Amino acid sequence: MEKVKLNVSGMSCGHCVKSVEGSVGALEGVSSVKVNLEAGQVEVEYNKEAVTLDKIKETIDDQGYDIV
Q1: Positive/negative CA dihedral, 54, 60, 64, 66
Q2: Own/partner pairs for 4-7, CB < 8 Å, 24+ apart?
Q3: 58: how many CB neighbours lie within 10 A of its CB?
Q4: Helices (H), 1-68
Q5: Pfam families, alphabetically (predicted)?
Q6: In terms of C-beta density within 10 A (0-12 exposed, 13-18 middle, 19 or more buried), how is residue 56 classed?
Q7: pLDDT for the residue 3
Q8: Model confidence pTM above 0.85
Q9: How many helices (H) and strands (E) does the chain have?
Q10: Which CATH code is given to the segment(s) 2-67?
Q11: What is the pLDDT of residues 16-38, one digit of tens each?
Q12: d(Cα 30, Cα 1) in Å, to the nearest integer?
């Protein structure tokens, strides 16, 4: 398992948390997603054999948030 912390801008509320955690968590190969609103970070644990980091970033971007 790989673990990565991504700095994400634009998240400000509970809806943002649900949006990111729900969409990234639904990806095959993602075992956990945790959003830290205060830090502006998303921590993702995933199987790199099943999903790429680029796909995770693209999914966050598709929800309207920017990876910084």
Answers
A1: negative
A2: 4/43, 4/44, 4/46, 4/53, 4/56, 5/41, 5/42, 5/43, 6/41, 6/42, 6/43, 6/44, 6/56, 6/57, 6/60, 6/67, 7/40, 7/41, 7/67, 7/68
A3: 12
A4: 14-25, 53-62
A5: HMA
A6: buried
A7: 97
A8: yes
A9: 2, 4
A10: 3.30.70.100
A11: 999 999 999 999 999 999 999 99
A12: 9
Q: Can you give the pLDDT at residue 15?
A: 96
Q: Which residues contact 34 (CB under 8 A, 6 or more apart)?
A: 21, 42, 43
Domain ranges of the chain: 2-67
SS3 call for 28:
coil
Q: What is the Cα–Cα distance from 56 to 44, expressed in whole angstroms?
A: 9
Distance CA 13, CA 4 (A): 22
Token reading at 39? 């830090």
DSSP label at residue 50: T
